[in-house]
Amino acid sequence: MHGFCKVGGVGSARLVFDEIPKRGLRPTVVSFNTLISGCCKAGAVEEGFRLKGVMESERVCPDVFTFSALINGLCKEGRLDEGSLLFDEMCGKGLVPNGVTFTVLIDGQCKGGKVDLALKNFQMMLAQGVRPDLVTYNALINGLCKVGDLKEARRLVNEMSASGLRPDRITFTTLIDGCCKYGDMESALEIKRRMVEEGIELDDVAFTVLISGLL
């Protein structure tokens, strides 16, 4: 099932899943989660929710991975309010969000322009002792740059470094793009110098962003 879902073959995965009860076996939470995740990645979020309902009717308790997959599916479709409600439902059931849960929610909220809400969830993440990874930081930095909060974006980059995470090309290119869009070319060039100092080569995207800002 996992192999089929990984390559987008949700239909084939479903056929395998349907064979489980026919063989006198009971689908496990892992089986359900694999199919739900595959459905959500393929854009079939409603089918994912239907499967969650089947889980519950068969007394298989949805876990953090179930909710994370569904939240991710909702956020990808821009259904941020529903994603937040599902997050609250998960927490209400006593399930503790993990790094993936927080990251998919933060990323969706940043892409949807709800950066203030993303920052609140980021603070909740830290308060619960869940360590953000590079993907989390990059999502939040991207959201902040889009709304012009370059000061907070740069503060997060410094926070990343202090926590032992090394900013990557995406981090720096996002910052450069934000600085260029808001006319802060001095900071953009300073970030470029920092990239060079840290041994990160500028790719075509970074060069294009810089050139556009200088024109």
Automatic annotation (TrEMBL):
<dbReference type="Pfam" id="PF12854">
    <property type="entry name" value="PPR_1"/>
</dbReference>
<feature type="repeat" description="PPR">
    <location>
        <begin position="28"/>
        <end position="62"/>
    </location>
</feature>
<feature type="repeat" description="PPR">
    <location>
        <begin position="1"/>
        <end position="27"/>
    </location>
</feature>
<protein>
    <submittedName>
        <fullName>Putative pentatricopeptide repeat-containing protein</fullName>
    </submittedName>
</protein>
<dbReference type="GO" id="GO:0003729">
    <property type="term" value="F:mRNA binding"/>
</dbReference>
<keyword id="KW-0677">Repeat</keyword>
<dbReference type="InterPro" id="IPR011990">
    <property type="entry name" value="TPR-like_helical_dom_sf"/>
</dbReference>
<dbReference type="InterPro" id="IPR051240">
    <property type="entry name" value="Mito_RNA-Proc/Resp"/>
</dbReference>
<dbReference type="Pfam" id="PF13041">
    <property type="entry name" value="PPR_2"/>
</dbReference>
<feature type="repeat" description="PPR">
    <location>
        <begin position="168"/>
        <end position="202"/>
    </location>
</feature>
<feature type="repeat" description="PPR">
    <location>
        <begin position="98"/>
        <end position="132"/>
    </location>
</feature>
<dbReference type="InterPro" id="IPR002885">
    <property type="entry name" value="PPR_rpt"/>
</dbReference>
<feature type="repeat" description="PPR">
    <location>
        <begin position="133"/>
        <end position="167"/>
    </location>
</feature>
<comment type="similarity">
    <text>Belongs to the PPR family. P subfamily.</text>
</comment>
<feature type="repeat" description="PPR">
    <location>
        <begin position="63"/>
        <end position="97"/>
    </location>
</feature>
<dbReference type="Pfam" id="PF01535">
    <property type="entry name" value="PPR"/>
</dbReference>
